Amino acid sequence: MGQALQRAAQWTSAKDGCGGKLEFTPINEDLLNSILKFVETVGKSPEESQLVFKNPLRWHTSLNPSQFQGAGFTDSGDDVVSDKKSPKDDQPLFLMHKLAKDTYEISVQTLGYGEQVLRAAGDKKIVELRSCLEANRDPVVFLLGERFATVETDDNSIFRYIEEITKEIEQNAKQSADGSNSAEIEEKKIVLRLRLKLLRLDEQLMNLSIQKMSSEVRLSPPTVDGEVSILQQLSGDDEERCVVEYIDYYGETFVSKNGCRAQPWRQLHGDICYLCVRVHDNDNPLYITANTSGYYLNNGPVNDKANHLDYGRPDSNTYRDLVSLLKSKSAKFSELIDKQEFALKVEQNDKKKIEMSENRDHEESEQKHSNEHHTRNEKDQQMEKDKNQKNRTQNKKKLEPSLKWKALDIEENILQKEQDTSVTKTEKKSKTVQRLKSKTPIDAEDSFSESDTESEEEEEAVERRAEANADLPSEYWQIQKLVKYLKGGNQTATIIALCSLRDFNLALETCQLAIRDVGGLEVLINLLDTEEVKCKIGALKILREISCNSQIRRAIADLGGLQTMVKILRDSNKELKCLAAETIANVAKFRRARRTVRQHGGIKRLVSLLDCAQIRNNKPDSALVTTDKPDTEKDVEVARCGALALWSCSKSKKNKEAMRKAGSIPLLAKLLKSTNEDMLIPVVGTLQECASEPSYRLAIRTEGMIEDLVQNLKSSNQELQMHCASAIFKCAEEKETRDLVRKFGGLDPLVTLLSNVENKELLAAATGAIWKCAISPENVQRFEELKAIDQLVTLLNNQPEEVLVNVVGALGELAKAPPNRMQIRKSGGIPYLVNLLTGTNQALLVNVTRAVGKCAEEPDNMIIIDKLDGVRLLWSLLKNQNTDVQASAAWAICPCIENAKDAGEMVRSFVGGLELIVSLLKSDDKEVLASVCAAIANIAKDEENLAVITDHGVVPMLAKLTNTTDDKLRRHLAEAIARCCNWGNNRTAFGREGAVAPLVKYLKSSDENVHRSTARALYQLSKNPENCITMHEAGVVQPLMKMVGSPDEDLQEAAAGCIGNIRRLALANERAKYA
């Protein structure tokens, strides 16, 4: 942020003893908006937002103390201070100090309070942020300290800080494990993380300013000459092929050394040249000024003076290129230029074009010489001009006019192809290391595209390597010498070199890249094909260590290392199999590697490794034997390594299917009974990865693995707990699984895991499992007993989105029970839920709207939601592009309208709200349509609102939906039609729109709710005689007669009322007939 403010932002000059101010320019506006977005995002982060600054940010504010009243703030005389204080100096983290009457100064010491200030500023956020930055020109110094101050030279502060943290961690590890420095180290990690985010923001701001400045590039003489030259080639009398009739420079023919044709005194105003253009659909020529700011029209020549222009402008329009101006002034030109098919072949026709251009220029020169008697000096100037024109014609390919024409596309493509060809030839001669950056044959054969995350990972790795080359440590060169011994030595020298290589810290990236850069990977992979076991073991141990690096992983895959390691899995040596499986587990982190393992039969061989460890007894609580026998220990280790490799491979859907076909499920079920945590972690990790597939979820339930997963939830290993909870989260989609989790006592440990607030991954998995288990009412009852709601409500604040999604989802399921809705209110959860309605995460919005909708079914809760403006926020979510969010918001609005005290007035207070909800009836999503129909049925209870939505065309829109076959939509659609019949001529309008006959078909549905709402709609529609005739013709009487005997009183009454209206109409017709 500091670099951008110093180099990209535009400041006024300092005066009156004060620093400069940020100018009101488009670049500054964009920078401020980006910084504002950053502060609002990071200010909500649970860790960075609470980091206390080295020095507080202070600035004069336009806000007043009344905007900081409520929880968390306290009045201290004329000042306002926060309740929270800095642990360093016991000063308040927020202070609003009164300087004079109506003049205040704000001081904040955390990003969280900075975000609160911006939120309180409302529409004046930018003003407040501008004042803060003007008062604190280098905010990073105040946030993180002087060591991170913005400097003009290379900034190495972050690297020194990383080294400092690393040394402290190492020292802390060597000392007693009392964790005395752990808090300080954690704080430094947060500082580092925030600094990295600020650096990324700096880069984004600099790129933004570059884009902004590049969009304001000014015209130059070569650009103008290029555009004119191309249009001259397309000029002529043919109105079907030529875009203009005539185009040429106007005025004197003298060309300055800077390329401008305008008089020197006009060049001071930015004029480059003047053009005269005659288009086909205008008798008068257009006189155009080419200025550095763009093209615009001038008033043309002065009548009584030859070659003299009136430089005034008939309008204020300025255009970036000549074509845009001509398009705006001539419809014929616009039509012709869009149809134009350019086929200029640069390489073949350059000579012809140059000759034609030279001849034309020469003829024009001779004609001008014959018509005008120039002096010798003028002739010299003319010759110089002709020479300049010839040079410009020969260098035409270097001109870059802003016209986006196919001619230029062809030229650029040819140049690009030539560049690509030269690059390819160079790459063929380069080292294998350099080939990894280009398209290798393996890459070309891939039929898939790598994910964005993987691509970014590879790019970052390349950048890190380029930086590392600047100052390489001695280990880099020592490793390269050893690799040379590997290449040229005998068997003994090779083994010694391998052992020496292992003495280095291969976890360091420098050591890993040293092996790769000198060609060591090829040698190590070649050693895997030898018959010498010791060489294989040594090579695999090194590959296992260095394959943690993303660049090394891809290099191993490119060199065919995975195929060789898959073959080793068949070896009888168990240590070799273990090492090969572990290396495969490291390499198979990206899609192409996982596919290679599957295509070369690696999945079957990895699954067979799981069968090495046998369970020695048949007791239910049996575990893998862990005796001192070497063979048994090796068997267990082989199975563990196989599970580790399958865990990495299981991220591919096709690999999951291959694993299932290879018989992995029963083997994993056996290994799950182990008490060895090192074994359990990869086994459970593989199961939770595969649990996204229905076939695996069924197998996990039927093979009795739920009991083992629940048992391992009680382990002390948090990683194992996390994977078990994640597996339950995915498997609990089915009711049978949820019942099994309750049966084996899994709900209690899940609630216990909610106390691990620091471990976000474990927290996300536990809350996800609680969410899915809470779908069953029997589980909800147990969660009530465990007081899970209170713990979940505490997690609604300062948690990452992956945790919030699950927490809110769980509260939404628990809120289906009326006592729980009251408990959520008592725990203070409703304000947090309403606040989350302003987020952007789509999954979170879906769950929040559901939870708020369930809470709104309680009248006391609805009062709080209304006070917090929650209904307005729900209504605004109807504009969201995600159909799930739209549907969920509409469902939530229904109970809000039902339980609000003055619902009709509340709905009318939303500007454009009724029009918005009616417009959603045009949606193609059935869930959206059903939810909107339900909302309209509630809105239509108020007569004034019904009148408004009728004016917005709700009747024909509802009528168009009546041909649906979806019972859920049918139910709410019929209810909406029944409600809308209570206004004006809506009954007649429904009949006219053809809505009556399709409703009769709804009575054939098997859903009792559809019958009830349809009978109500038919009863209301039957109050119109024409509708009664339509119903009778559609055969409504017979099904209604059956429904009169229904035990549902509402259905009875509506069916009887409809039959009664039809009967009365028939009797009236009889009387009229015999009258």
From TrEMBL:
A Pfam family of this chain: Arm
Q: Where are the ARM repeats?
A: 519-561, 560-602, 787-829, 912-954, 994-1027, 1035-1062
Q: Where is the composition biased (Acidic residues)?
A: 443-461
Q: Which domain of life is it from?
A: Eukaryota
Q: Where is this region: Disordered?
A: 68-87, 353-401, 419-467
Biased region (Basic and acidic residues) positions are: 353-389, 419-430
Give the protein name, as stated in the record.
Armadillo repeat-containing protein 4
